[in-house]
Amino acid sequence: MIKIAIQKSGRLFDESIKLLKECGLSIDNGKGQLKAQVRNFPAEILYLRNSDIPFYVEQGIADLAIIGQNVVAEKEVQIEELLTLGFSKCRLSIATPRNTSYHSITDLQGKRIATSYPATLKQYLEKNKVDAAIHLINGSVEIAPSIGLADAICDLVSSGSTLFKNNLIENEVIFKSQAALYGNKDALDKKKTDVEQLVFRMSSVIRARQYKYILFNIPNKSIDAASAILPGLKSPTIVPLIEDDWSSLHSVIKNDDTWDIIDQLKQVGAQGILISDMSKIVV
Ligand code: ATP
Ligand code: MG
To answer: Which of 31, 211, 241, 268 could cross-link with 246 by S-S, CB 3.0 to 4.6 Å?
Structure first.
């Protein structure tokens, strides 16, 4: 039986549940619940506070957890990162008010910085030999400068719109984060079979999210030109069409390349281009 910790409510909750379900785990949604048995896999889901999860994994209360890399870095725990998950991307950044000048980190010497991430900030300041006062605030860090509580903040940023609304400029990115799967060291050993099975499923789902399936029709004389445009997992599959001198090509492409590839394929005569999502890629 593996115990998997996820955030009980907050930014990571929906994506964590979705990922576990796509891995075939049948779970009752956690709202208001503390734990839930998985009906079709030897696992139990623990719904916990984000900031508590790293300790629970370190102590072996949970065997696995889905959590932001930033939280693990902040708590300075000894747990294993098994897989990055591609969601909840954000960065921990230092920002200062728009109306103050900022040239480099040494401008923060002797200043007050408000943050919910004191350990990560302290490490960064020490590395840069800057001595500043760190003020721990647990929420709404971005208002600290405007109410006179701090000269700068260090907070999580994703789009930057919260900083913008509060007249703050992002000056230093000190840590880049995304959600990841972590494991307790002993559990990885003792519960190896179940853990490996879940990691295998999760990596197949995560990999599939990074790619699209593409298929299109192409005159036979242009197959080489079209194949050269497709940097798939392997070389494309070619299926002859009933219509003479035409074939259908199938391949897999990276999400980010989709529109570029469509444009290029049209130029070499591709027709009927279909792009679709995949739910798993097993390699
Ligand atoms: P708790 O569950 O203990 O209340 P929390 O208040 O830190 O934790 P959330 O605000 O839901 O929880 O954030 C959870 C995680 O989502 C963060 O630790 C971070 O990894 C990620 N995240 C992604 N983008 C952002 C963002 N713009 N602001 C804050 N967190 C973000
Ligand atoms: Mg919270």
So the answer is: 241
Taken as a whole, the chain contains a residue count of 283
Q: CB of 166 closer than 6 A to ligand 1?
A: no
What ligand is nearest to the CA atom of residue 50? 1
Q: Dihedrals φ, ψ of 37, to 5°?
A: -80, 140
Q: What is the mean pLDDT of the chain?
A: 95
* pLDDT at 33 (0 to 100): 79
Per-residue pLDDT, 30: 58
| CATH fold of 90-177 | D-Maltodextrin-Binding Protein; domain 2 (3.40.190)
The structure tokens listed for 149 are: 């509580």
**Quick one: CATH architecture of 2-87+178-207?**
3-Layer(aba) Sandwich (3.40)
**How far, in Å, CA of 28 to CA of 137, rounded?**
34
105 Cα to the center of ligand 2, angstroms: 29
| CB-CB contact of 46 with 3 (8 Å) | yes
